[in-house]
Structure formats: structure tokens, C-alpha cells
Amino acid sequence: MTQPLQLTFGDLVIDLDRYRVLMAGRPLALSYREYALLVYLAGRAGRVVQKRQLMEEGLGRHDPMGLRMVDEHIRHLKSVLEREGRTFIHAVADIGYRFEVSIQQPLSLGKM
Q1: How far apart are CA 32 and CA 44, in angstroms?
Q2: Is the pLDDT of residue 4 over 60?
Q3: I need a surface site. Which of 30, 38, 56, 88 has the fewest CB within 10 A?
Q4: Can you state the angle between helices 32-42 and 66-82, rounded to 10 degrees?
């Protein structure tokens, strides 16, 4: 039996096989688009990801008006994550976003 592939950042666990996100063991309610953006950003932790890249590669859309949609999904995603007292996603000027993990939130990728 194979174990699920997960991204783990301290208390934040992104279960890639089951399409769910847990914070301190509790599931977070995210839309599919918010989940897709979180996975895309977390998979590139520490790097700035441009809004257009998030729209086209993270969401699979090519709508030129979609850049505002990315901001709205990120805004809601941040509000869900920050409700738990942590900050993972940081805006970078008008360029895009960066998923950052503090020293207290070690990164691990593996089968759990």
C-alpha cells in the first residue's frame, strides 16, 4: 500500500493525493482554485511567482482579465491560512506572490 504524497510546512499539510489541506490536523475549507494556487506556490516555496504564471500554470487559464481573479483567490486563501495565526503567502509589489516558510515551520516533502 502506497502512502499519500504530502507537502508539510510545520502544522500545514497539503495532501496531494487526497486534495486536502490540514492545519494542526484540522481540514481547511478551500475551493479547488485556492487549493491549486496553494499547491503551485508551496511547490515553489521561497521563489516569487508572477501573477500571470499563477493564472496560466497554477489555474490553467489564459484569460487576460484573470489577473484580478488570481488576487481575489489569493486574498481568500491568505485569510483562511492567517486565521490559524500563521503567514505563508506574501505579496511582492505588483509582480506576484511568494510562499515563505519561517524557521519555525520546517519544510518536508515525502510520503507520510
Answers
A1: 19
A2: yes
A3: 56
A4: 80
Can you tell me whether residue 89 is helix, strand or coil?
strand
Contact (CB, 8 A) for 57 and 66? no
Nine-digit cell at 108? 518536508
Q: Which residue has the cell 516555496?
A: 45
pLDDT in tens, 37-60: 999 999 999 999 999 999 988 888
> Which residue ranges make up each domain of the chain?
31-100
Average of pLDDT values for 17-30? 93
- How many Å apart are CA 95 and CA 57, to the nearest integer? 16
The residue among 106, 96, 79 whose CA lies nearest residue 41 is: 96
Structural contact between residues 89 and 40, judged by C-beta atoms closer than 8 angstroms: no
DSSP assigned state of 62: -
Instruction: Read off the pLDDT of residues 7-23 as tens digits, 9 standing for 90 and up.
Output: 999 889 999 999 999 99
Q: What is the domain class of 31-100 according to CATH? A: mainly alpha
Q: Phi, psi (5° rounding) for residue 42?
A: -65, -35
